[in-house]
Amino acid sequence: MPHRKFYQEPFTAYPNQLLDRIRIKLTDTEKAVIDVVVRLTYGWQSTSARISNDTFVKKSGKPERAIINAKHKLLQLGLLVQLESAHSTTPALYTIDLYYNDPNRCMKRHQPTTQSIEQLFDDLLSGIGESAANFVPLIS
Fold it and tell me: What is the per-residue pLDDT across 56-102, written as a single tens digit (0 to 9) for each?
């Protein structure tokens, strides 16, 4: 028997972990926020999306104050991650961290740093027992 498609139009693949374990713990508005982010990221085969409060309101049907509160809670949990803040007319950049409750895999471990490249390189090398003095720079 030939393989048949079970869908008729484009669809968004929804991560099983969100459906099975995470969504059941969220309020309706928090679910709506996550649904909007999933649609605008995974639905476009992307890992992040710029989403304004207005877009959250329009796509979720929830009031703006409820959206703001839900986003705040999801950001505190670490499930929703704001990669870049909003700037004038550019909306904030969001993604979802499916491993938000796993301290070894969550994105909170990889937050932007104010360290210089040299400091980061030194930290990396010290983690493997080396020193920057042992390396010759490729570019002077």
Answer: 999 999 999 999 999 999 999 889 999 999 888 899 999 998 888 77
- If you write DSSP's letter for every residue of 45-103 in order, what string do you get? T-S-EEE-HHHHHHHH---HHHHHHHHHHHHHHTSEEEEE--BTTBPEEEEE-TTTT-T
Q: Edge-to-edge, what's the strand order for the sheet holding 49-51?
A: 49-51, 92-96, 80-84
Token pair of 136 as six digits: 């010759």
User: pTM for this structure?
Assistant: 0.69
The dihedral through the CA atoms of 18, 23, 26, 28 has a sign that is positive
Q: Which two tokens stand for residue 129?
A: 């027992």
Residue type, 53: N
Residues 140 and 119: their CA atoms lie apart, in Å, by 17
The gap from C-alpha 57 to its chain's centroid, in whole angstroms, comes to 19
69: which residues sit within 8 A by CB, 6+ positions away?
Answer: 29
CA distance 62 to 56: 8
Structural domains of the chain sorted by starting position, each given as residue range(s) with its CATH number in brackets: 16-101 (1.10.10.10)
* C-alpha 19 chain-centroid distance: 16
